[in-house]
Design goal:
Oligomer: single chain
Strand content: under 5%
Number of strands: 0
Radius of gyration: 19 Å
Distance between the termini: 31 Å
Number of helices: 12
Shape: globular
Number of domains: 1
């Protein structure tokens, strides 16, 4: 007896709830980081994020890929891409100290658009017209967001642009480690940052005392980072990236809501417009890429 294709569950049925939950956890992670970075060193906050991610992800990677999960065919590339992720985190958390959560998140969402710019020299991919349109729309959004007189026109906005640029480089370099297991790649993403910041921790700690409540938040950050990366990896193993990418931008809703609930900040009209334009560029890019992939499958 043959089964009809429509009886098979859609790949998004399982992947999307995991992906959306990861977005909520990442927004909670950013909110916790913004709360902690106001009174504590950036160093401590970044260390907590990576040490926690490694603690959650390592047993998972070992369970799924066996005891040799750490072996890689691309050691230099794994370390380089993980260093890009560490730089992106430092820039982003540093910018969060000065800028509202929602606007900061929006600027960091330029990363998928910047991937288009990097893909040409690094991967040898020729950008399509749709990709260039997405790049232009994305930068228009940033210009609107950083207009004169806006709360985002602050030197720290450069840190967030740095976060988007290094995050995009991390995403492009991730494509260069294709021969490795996804669990190996997940392990290195957390391990490089955890080792670096643990070694440098004695020099990076400030003199401020940590309350029990803040200690709990530091532990929570690690748990949030590890769980979010685990969920993202699991969702990409279940459904293609082209289906999931447009849903990344749902995270901006959580960032706006948490920014209001925790820090009593709502984006003004101009900032909301800039954020909407950045989201539109990313969604347009994701839809165009999905259509292109479908056409390539139709005409091999």
């Amino acid at each position: 007896m043959t089964t009809h294709p429509h009886h098979q569950p859609h790949p998004l049925a399982k992947a999307l709830p995991m992906f959306l939950l990861a977005g909520i956890l990442l927004s909670l992670l950013d909110t916790t980081a913004k709360y902690l970075v106001r009174d504590h060193s950036l160093f401590l906050v970044v260390w907590a994020r990576y040490a926690g991610q490694m603690a959650v992800v390592t047993p998972f990677a070992r369970h799924r890929a066996g005891p040799g999960f750490w072996r890689t065919r691309h050691l230099k590339m794994q370390v380089l891409r993980s260093l890009c992720l560490v730089a992106a985190t430092c820039f982003f958390f540093g910018g969060l100290r000065y800028l509202p959560l929602a606007e900061a998140s929006a600027i960091s969402f330029l990363a998928p658009v910047l991937v288009v710019v990097y893909a040409m020299p690094i991967l040898g991919e020729r950008p399509t017209r749709a990709r260039w349109i997405a790049v232009i729309i994305g930068f228009v959004g940033v210009v609107v967001l950083l207009r004169p007189g806006s709360s985002v026109l602050h030197p720290a906005a450069l840190l967030l642009l740095g976060a988007a640029a290094t995050n995009a480089m991390y995403q492009v370099l991730t494509r260069r480690v294709g021969g490795d297991s996804v669990y190996t790649t997940l392990f290195y993403s957390g391990m490089v940052g955890a080792v670096l910041f643990t070694l440098a921790l004695p020099w990076g700690l400030d003199q401020s005392t940590i309350t029990w409540q803040e200690g709990g938040l530091i532990l929570l950050m690690g748990l949030l980072a590890g769980s979010a990366h685990w969920l993202i990896t699991a969702s990409f193993l279940t459904a293609p990236a082209s289906l999931l990418t447009p849903f990344t931008y749902v995270q901006l809703l959580w960032a706006t809501l948490l920014g209001y609930l925790v820090f009593h900040h709502l984006p003004d009209g101009g900032s909301a417009l800039g954020m909407a334009i950045i989201v539109a560029s990313g969604v347009f890019l994701a839809i165009a890429e999905r259509r292109r992939a479908r056409l390539e499958r139709s005409f091999p």
